[in-house]
Design goal:
The protein contains 3 helices and 3 strands. With about 110 residues, it is α/β, with parallel strands linked by helices.
Length: about 110
């Protein structure tokens, strides 16, 4: 169905962004594709609109549960917990470096 795809990697800014591709990621995982998720920052919660530690505490467990449902193995998840997450623009070079290092070490 997926033309011999063996590995899929999702890079997402926030912990709720994988929901955009959840259906496809789930289908890939069910088809036996190794799905990896790399997420940089927490989604902000109502009482922590800047995406600080409170957001990590709330959405971290939700992120884990969502990836369980999608079918991403625990060993294939990376959450960098960059806070505050409301503005990742100043961290763009750091994020690019993390993506580069992740790809170099995992060779997807």
């Amino acid at each position: 169905m997926f033309g011999g795809i063996k590995t899929a990697v999702g890079f997402f800014a926030h912990t709720d962004d994988e929901m955009i591709a959840a259906g496809t990621l789930h289908r890939l995982a069910r088809a036996g594709v190794k799905v990896s998720m790399v997420t940089f920052a927490p989604a902000a919660v109502k009482d922590d609109r800047t995406g600080g530690q409170r957001s990590v505490d709330v959405v971290g467990p939700e992120w884990i549960k969502s990836l369980d449902l999608i079918g991403v193995d625990a060993d294939d998840r990376w959450f960098y917990r960059m806070i505050p997450s409301a503005d990742l623009q100043p961290k763009r070079q750091q994020i690019c470096q993390l993506i580069y290092e992740w790809c170099e070490s995992h060779k997807p």
